[in-house]
Prior knowledge:
It is a single chain. The protein is α+β, with helices and mostly antiparallel strands and about 575 residues long. Helix 13 packs antiparallel against helix 16 and helix 16 packs antiparallel against helix 17.
Amino acid sequence: MExxxxxxxxxxxxxxxxxxxxxxxxxxxxDGVRLLNVDPGKTTNRTVVTFVGTPEAVCEAAFQAIRxxxxxxxxxxxxxxxxxxxxxxxxxxxxxxxxxxxxTAIWSKKLAERVGKELNxxxxxxxxxQPNPLRKNLSLIRSGEYEGFFKKITQPQWKPDFGxxxxxxxxxxxxxxxxxxxVAYNINLNTTSVRRANAIAFDVRETGRVxxxxxxxxGKPITDSKGEPVYIPGTLKSVKAIGWYIEEFGIAQxxxxxxxxxxTPVHAAFEEVSKKAMERGIRVTGSELxxxxxxDALLQAGRYFLHMQKRSLGISEKxxxxxxxxxxxxxxxxxFKPDERxxxxxxxxxxxxxxxxxxLKEFSEETASESSAPGGGSVSAYLGSxxxxxxxxxxxxxxxxxxxxxxxxxFSKWAExxxxxxxxxxxxxxxxxxxxxxxxxxFSLPKSTAEExxxxxxxxxxxxxxxxxxxxxxxxxxxxxxxxxQAMVEKGNPNSVSDAGVAALCxxxxxxxxxxxxxxxxxxxxxxxxxxxxISKGKALQEKAGALETSVLSAVSAKINGN
Length: 563
């Protein structure tokens, strides 16, 4: 599989959109990269750009963007709320898939060396690319900012890793390195006071605040035996934070970098800042994301807030995101568009879910068309997803039933299981169609030579095996959904028992329909032992589904008739 890395350069220009576009045009010109997001900020006078691609292509695109930024941005005229030291202030590389952090660090060093040598810009390595522990932290490297770097760069301990040891006034210096995924996240306050915002930032950020004698703000700093300041740690790990004023919106913010969201997720940062703000008589009014965020971070937030409300967590991905966006106030300063801000959505191959995206009418008409696909296999998967969806609905209704509050968590767990099954079965609607198309494509391969014939046969067999395994998955998942359905008939909201019965009929039909596809596709396999194994497995699943359907429908009938 292809190696992918993400690059998130921060350019010291957030007002001139024409200038910013000239920089991002350099990225888009580069083959092998995809520009995902451009996020300019007027008050910070800074633009965060996100793109992804192969390591070679990303490094080339980053170099060209840094070169263009050096041409267009004059740091002698640049001012903004965000700390900065150069036209391209920082350029991190982040491993996305099939590449280690160590290998990503090697690529970052190659990029840094090229920028220093060819563009004559001082470059500092940071995070996983920096061997010196005293120079890993971005805030320590950038300390003193642009104005202070003319002197700082002459100090032996701050000699750049690459490039000249003289600070160029026009371009400033750049920081390049490999790091993990960082979420840039700002929390809005109902105050204009930067001092109070900073106080809250010091309360929560990992480094905390300097310990002082007497008064916590004006008192003399306490130092250790080496003369270094002693710090009172903040309450959140893997969090960097400062307070600032955003003139564009007339509010103060806590600007945060969440450097490890597995340690401090977005919702935890939001809740802790809300708590510390309240202690100081200040309220959090909302928040904003800068750049992109992983899907799971928002799903976690949605589940967290639902759990706080004692509501079922077994709802769709779309609804979980909606809860997260609303609870975090992510639309206070502007619209939040998941398709443009969630990294997985931007990287997703939209063509891979063609059928699942169709309306009911469109799917029905597509099935009825002259095309052989979608056919019985896709319809079976769709039936399975409907069965799981109905079972999940009963679980959600049971979790929310008046008088059953003490059981909400039990039903929520059932609903979560059902939602996983529904989502996977829906994906198999397209996978079944694709597997059939792959068989047709294999049959159309040339067969003039012995080598071509051999390759064609291998491709046909590979595609046929997949086309047999996909409906087998439909059978397995639909059978699992019947366990949920049976539990809902026995324990769930009695007013929805007929819905559970329909769910069982859908699930059993999905198993039976998928089994027909298993048997007919398995006959095309040259490996007859494998074919018989797959057919036997399918037959056993069908028999279990039949027995479960009989049991479930009997229980449904008894409940409907009051027995």
